Q: What sequence folds into this?
């Protein structure tokens, strides 16, 4: 099965608790099971951390500009998608990503996804944002679909969305 | 981008008040603060709710950071007094102080400069010192103060990009729809901006669409001459969010007179990190600047020219497709 590998980057890692780690583990399980329904695996997940001191305020995302800056300032030098987990994304936004993001992680513009840890729905947020990076747009009229504008939602993907994701340059055959 | 949906029946003061303290699992704390402004209660009660949350010593610093952010929703006047109060706390946590200082730089008045100076001088870390110093810089530039020395962050320019294969700046005036959305985005971070008094110019560079919001008064003869006499916040640059098509402010442009009609121009992120730097000359009819990207992680080599006349702002330039200075690498860890 084709696969997308992910770097899990904890921003402000010294403030992460065991329940945050449990939520991340559940989120990884959720994205694996959801993507598997459309023929896409998540074979490799690697773990990274940025301390609160090194994050210089980016552990609390105050606005979209700060999320974008975070992905500019930090990159894991490998061929996996960088997903930055933060404990707080101020306001009603819970994640941010480019749509059809680049595979060159030093490219102009945002080149990673940012995900807020929210108990019970982090998996939805992770799968939704990675879906954006792999080329999926919103499905505003379908609350059963993972790409509905808000969470929680039905978390489903259809075959055409699977085909779009599998065609992204980050996906390994 | 994905938003968190909260049922309407939970958008009540008694629910949100509990959620602000993390006692309502179905309403995340980060969202509860944003929801205060939507409650159907008098403004004074909204202020009290956030004020109480801010004074709760049991709250974690990241939650207090959110509380400080959320006072901005209550209007710049309330926000200013609340932010000053936070900075006056003898044991305020560094992240809370840094956010409060940054916001005060955007909303505050010249009389808040002394407070920011005290915060800067008493800071025990370079991070807070830098945020407080930049907040002072913002107020000095927003109000064009000439009697206050501020230290701009150092900015070493990158060499220009190779022209072959570079991305071109495409400059134009946006339509009414994009102009309105850009101004709305700028107002969210800079609530004292009067949208009726701004001109908006648009730049497309590769995948990045930016709207440059410039005070209209800067384009007149007096405005141009003023650039050579006092510091100014000459523009806010907003970038489009591809998912929502909303604009969010990403950069501020700060000018400072250098003597003999020469003016320096620095474009920084909202928290003060320099991204583009340059210099130009100001005459009676026009001003011209040559700008280059700063040697910082994640920013491609870029060179662009800004020409300001009494009628318009024209921006042209080129950018590399990828950053010359690689981003920092996070530390690899074992899954806990």
A:
């Amino acid at each position: 099965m084709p696969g997308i590998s992910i770097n899990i980057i904890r921003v402000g890692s010294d403030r992460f608790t065991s329940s945050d780690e449990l939520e991340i583990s559940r989120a990884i399980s959720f994205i694996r099971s959801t993507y598997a329904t459309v023929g896409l695996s998540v074979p490799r997940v690697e773990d990274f951390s940025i301390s609160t001191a090194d994050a210089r305020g980016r552990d609390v995302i105050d606005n979209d500009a700060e999320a974008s800056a975070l992905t500019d300032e930090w990159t894991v030098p490998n061929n996996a998608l960088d997903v930055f987990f933060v404990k707080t994304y101020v306001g009603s936004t819970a994640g941010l990503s480019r749509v059809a993001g680049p595979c060159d992680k030093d490219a102009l513009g945002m080149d990673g996804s940012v995900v807020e840890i929210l108990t019970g729905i982090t998996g939805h947020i992770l799968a939704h944002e990675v879906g954006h990076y792999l080329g999926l747009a919103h499905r505003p009229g379908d609350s059963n679909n993972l790409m509905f504008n808000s969470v929680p939602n039905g978390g489903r993907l259809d075959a055409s969305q699977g085909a779009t994701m599998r065609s992204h340059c980050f996906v390994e055959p | 981008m994905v938003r968190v949906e909260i049922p309407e029946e939970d958008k009540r003061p008694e629910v949100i008040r509990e959620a602000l303290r993390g006692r309502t699992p179905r309403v995340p704390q980060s969202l509860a603060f944003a929801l205060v402004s939507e409650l159907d209660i008098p403004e004074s009660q909204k202020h009290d709710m956030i004020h109480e949350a801010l004074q709760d010593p049991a709250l974690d610093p990241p939650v207090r950071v959110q509380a400080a952010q959320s006072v901005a929703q209550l209007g710049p006047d309330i926000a200013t007094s609340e932010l000053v109060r936070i900075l006056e706390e003898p044991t305020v946590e560094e992240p809370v102080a840094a956010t409060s200082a940054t916001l005060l730089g955007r909303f505050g008045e010249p009389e808040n400069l002394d407070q920011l100076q005290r915060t800067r001088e008493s800071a025990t870390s370079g991070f807070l010192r830098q945020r407080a110093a930049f907040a002072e810089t913002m107020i000095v530039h927003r109000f064009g103060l000439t009697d206050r020395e501020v230290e701009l962050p150092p900015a070493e320019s990158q060499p220009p990009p190779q022209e072959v294969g570079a991305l071109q700046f495409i400059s134009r005036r946006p339509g009414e729809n994009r102009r309105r959305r850009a101004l709305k985005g700028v107002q969210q971070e800079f609530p004292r901006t009067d949208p009726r008094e701004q001109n908006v110019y648009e730049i497309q560079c590769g995948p990045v669409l930016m709207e440059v919001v410039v005070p209209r008064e800067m384009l007149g003869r007096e405005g141009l001459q003023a650039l050579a006499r006092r510091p100014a916040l000459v523009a806010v640059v907003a970038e489009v969010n591809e998912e929502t098509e909303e604009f969010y402010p990403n950069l501020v442009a700060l000018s400072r007179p250098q003597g003999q009609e020469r003016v320096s121009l620095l474009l920084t992120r909202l928290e003060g990190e320099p991204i583009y730097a340059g210099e130009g000359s100001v005459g009676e009819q026009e001003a011209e600047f040559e700008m280059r990207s700063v040697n910082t992680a994640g920013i491609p080599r870029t060179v662009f020219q800004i020409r300001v006349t009494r009628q318009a702002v024209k921006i042209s330039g080129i950018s590399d497709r990828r950053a010359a200075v690689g981003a920092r690498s996070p530390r690899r860890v074992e899954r806990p």
The helical segments of chain A are 18-36, 52-55, 64-73, 122-133, 159-166.
